[in-house]
Amino acid sequence: MKLSTGFIMLIFVLFTTSLFAQTGNGSRNAGIIVNVSGGLNNAGLTHENTISSFGPFDQAAINFAGGISAIYAHSSHYHFSAGLRYAKAGAKTQELTGTDDSGNQLGKYWFVRELLFVEVPLLLMYQFNASKIVPSIFIGPNMGFLLDAEEKIGSDYGENPRKSNIKAKLNTFNLSAEVGIGLKYRLNDNTALGISTCYLYGLSNQVKDSAEGEQKTRDLRVFGSLYFSLR
Question: What predicted TM-score, i.e. pTM, was given to this entire model?
C-alpha cells in the first residue's frame, strides 16, 4: 500500500511539472483565485470480507462536504488547486424491522458509520476556452485526516441514544484519487459562480484489524462554488 501511494504521488508531481513546463509562455496569465464551496456527499464504503456486529455497511449515506481552496491560474488553461475541506464520509446498513417486547412492529431502523475528515485535495485542473460559461476537468490526490468516527442507530420511529466511538479501530490517514468536472459562470472579470461533481476513490484501508478485511471510502460529491480572483 505504501509503495502504490508513493507511486501515485510521484506520477502526479511529474505530470504536473511537465504540463507547467510545456505551458511556461502562459505565465503572464498567472494569478490566484479563491474558491469557497459546499455541497452534498453521497458517501459509501467498500466491505470486502468486512466483519461487523451490525452487518455490512453497504448502503450509501448522504452527508455534507465543503471547504476553501486557492487556485493558481498558471495559464488560461492549466490551473493548480490546493484546498482545505471538511467532509463527512461513511455508510449505513440495510434497513431492518424493529419490534417491541410483544413483537409489534415499530418501524425501520439501520446502523450508521460516520467518518469525519479534514481533507487536503491537490488538483490539476484544465479549463476549456469559453467566455461566460467555462467547463473544466480536474484530477489529483486527496489526503484525508480522520477527526472522529462513530457507529450509531438511525430509525424512522424516534432517536436512539446508542452509539459508540470507533476512531481507535480505524487508520487516521486516508488517501483518495479525486477526479471530476465543473462548470463556471463568470459574473465579471473577478467573480464567478460554479457547480462541480467529483468522485473520490479511496486507496487506503480504513480498518486497522486485518481480521475485518478491507474497507475503503467511495464518495460521489456535488458542490456549489463562489470564485473570486486576487489578481
Answer: 0.80
